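Schema walk-through. Below, the input block comes first and the output block second. Nothing else is stored per chain. Lengths vary across the set, and this one has 120 residues.
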Amino acid sequence: MRTIQFTRFLLAAGLCLGLGSGMALGQSAGQDMKNAGNDTKGAAVDTGHATRRVYHRTAAGSKTVAHRTTAGSKTAYRKTAHGTTVAADKTARGAKAAGHDTVHGTQRLGDKIEDKPDPH
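--- output ---
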């Protein structure tokens, strides 16, 4: 009889320890799931912050590029306009000089045809 009672006691103690450790493991797994969920949430929040930061930097870079392109276009326009004016002025001066030379040459030719002496 003593053996049966001792066996019952050992069986009860084993069941208590086995079920108690199972409960402890079950709580640990549940806590692990909660921790994993919180870690995932934190990673998503960090990704959102990084995405927002990249968006703002890209927007700022795009504005800078637009401003610099505008400034470069204005500079190119002004330099082209100035170059065109200078070219027109030089062409006019060249045409005027050519016209004067042509007139002078024509007068000298006319003088040679009429047998007048060269004044130069």
